[in-house]
Amino acid sequence: MSGIVGIVHFGRAPIDRHLLGQMTASLAFRGPDAQETWIDGHVGFGHTLLKTTDESEHESQPFTLDGKLWIVADARVDARRHLVPQLRAHGHRNLSPDATDVELILRAYHTWDESCVEHLLGDFAFAIWDSPRQRLFCARDHLGVKPFFYARIGETLIFSNTLDCVRQHPAVSDRLNDLAIADFLLFDLNQDPAATTFADIRRIPPAHSATWSADATELRRYWTLPIDEPVYFRDDDDYVDRFSELLEQAVDDRLRTKKVGVFMSGGLDSPALAATASRILCWRSSDSEVRAFTTVIDGFDGNERYYAKLVSDHLRIPIHFQDLTGNAIDPNWAETDVRTPEPVSDPMNLVSERREYQLAGEHSRVWFYGEGPDNALRNEWKPYFSYSVRRRHFGRLARNAWELVLRSRRIPFLRGMLAPLKNRWHGQSEKSGYPQWLNQDFATRLDLSERWEEHERSWAAALRHPLRPEAYRLFDGPMWEHLFSQCDAARVGAAIEMRLPFVDLRLLRYMLAVPGLPWCRDKYLMRRALRRMLPLPVLKRPKTPLTGDPQWEAALRLGLPPLQPAPQLAQYVEPSVVPDRANQDMMSFWGDLRPRALDYWLRNLPPSVPVKKPHGESLEEQDREPDTQGILRVAS
Q: Is 322 in contact with 296 (CB distance < 8 Å)?
């Protein structure tokens, strides 16, 4: 993980060295190991380094090969065993297999120009200054794991992977983006993948590149999640072997370190990562370590502590339990002052949440997160049934259904039919309704009721995949970028990098292509693949969601603090209409919490303080000596 920042004055005004230095220094929380800046007249880059791979031990950024092309990147390049030979074949004959990620990206740009992104796999956000062509080329990874923010103000472009860093530039205003605020209040996340909460600041959407010059701007989508043909093998073992191969590949590419942590439950997904990582590291080194970190809430989590301990004992890895029993929310949360770059829907436990991440960071800088299979292996039997009938695959369909009956000893489709009824029997809605507490002038000006209705219509229209429409729509929409932002260092307040092997594109596309029956039923594909890796009680454990919502129930028990609105809140919300107690309906509770969450963010939002250059050089500048290429280095 790294902190990156850059300023380009296309009008050729010189870069303010002090300003760039201060903006770079603000990124030290992302990279405490090294800090460097580079300036060439009207262009300047800054970088802070967090060493998380073996190759990063000798990494230095901003980086150049020839003094003409300069790059700054927050990146991890995967599939290196395929990329390095490709680059060697295109003239980079002396390229080391241990080259840093940033060198691989720059050599890919040398080779394929702007099409370099089509040859990269991994998580990345980078910027390349092409001096001969006087242009800036930037790109972001396929799913948006790494953030990239920018502001174009007149002839100046400012970029960073940290929103608050961009806000430090004196040309960038504090003006809020009303439509982004509306999306937060209505949906909990931006519907525009390029928008941020601030009017002057945009983000490069996932799977996009951007090219800026003095007289042109081009934003290009370089990849779209494909709709692959279903995968059919003659032998069931082939499905399992292919999944195991891709899982090991995804973990291996993200495991270029000797020590890794896993945020581990007692289910299948994260234990699969722990087991795979343990096996790979055991092969590599005798002094490696995998450690599990498990959050438990007794009475709600289906005995998570017991199953997670079974896994850790089976794998012989240490485990730390973070017990939130009775502490699902901080009773005094409204009085805390945790700052987040943008509003978050749940501000009720931010202090303890950050404490947990900081504790995790004391063990390892790299942590695995097991999100992915719940969506990618979503059991969508109706589309599979319809597709099989349309294709006249009656024999395969009958065989799959019969195998499922023998394995599960129940009628295959009955549980899926009954699930929606269970919610109605328990008096719980599946989503909240249009909020009544919106400021009416604000809602009318932006036509928010129509935006709400359009979102409901587009939800159904997005179901384009013939076999896995729900799973495909979830990965092709804004939800996952929102999840990644919740894992980012700026959000969690700790110098750790979270990696998600299950959203490796090769593995993800395979999971979306396997037949729904039998492989997605109760994650049967994973249960078969993990037979020799996890204890039997875990493999047989059914999917166990929380038996309730501990935060909602705590809010019902403790009540909500009085709303003492920030002055700006009334522009968006009618404070007197916001419920003063937790709603008895869980989904309505979370919807009604959003105006309080926005108020919390507004009250703790610091104004951007433009860096003012003092008379003469700053102490930092006196302590740093520029080298012959205009690079300033600060020792770690």
A: yes
Give the three-class secondary structure for 496: coil
Rounded to a whole number of angstroms, the distance between the first and last alpha carbons of the chain is 15
Q: pLDDT of 378-401, one tens digit each? A: 988 787 777 777 777 767 767 766
Cα(104)–Cα(95) distance, integer angstroms = 9
Count how many Cα atoms sit within 13 Å of the Cα of residue 471 in the half-sphere of its side chain.
Answer: 28
How much of the chain is in helix, strand and coil states, percent to nearest 5? 45, 15, 40
| Token pair in block for residue 498 | 């979270």
Angstrom distance (rounded) from CA 251 to CA 247: 6
- Specify the pLDDT at position 99: 95
| pLDDT computed for residue 506 by the predictor | 98
Reduce the secondary structure of 578-591 to three states and give it as a string: CCCCCCCCHHHHHH
User: With 0-12 CB in 10 A as exposed, 13-18 as middle and 19+ as buried, what is 544?
Assistant: middle
Q: For the full predicted model, state whether its pTM sits above 0.85.
A: yes
pLDDT of residue 628: 35
Q: How high is the pLDDT of residue 17?
A: 97
Q: Residues of the chain whose pLDDT is less than 70?
A: 394, 397, 400-432, 459-463, 545-546, 608-636
Half-sphere exposure of 462 (CA within 13 A, CB side): 15
Cα dihedral 67, 32, 348, 378 sign: positive
Instruction: Quote the CA–CA distance of 551 and 590 in Å, as a whole number.
Output: 10
CA 571 – CA 533 distance, rounded (Å): 55
pLDDT at 625: 37
Question: Both tokens of residue 619?
Answer: 């102490």
3-state secondary structure 559-628: CCCCCCCCHHHHHCECHHHCCCCCCCCHHHHHHHHHHHHHHHHHHHCCCCCCCCCCCCCCHHHHHCCECC
Contact partners, residue 173, CB within 8 Å, separation at least 6:
198, 199, 200
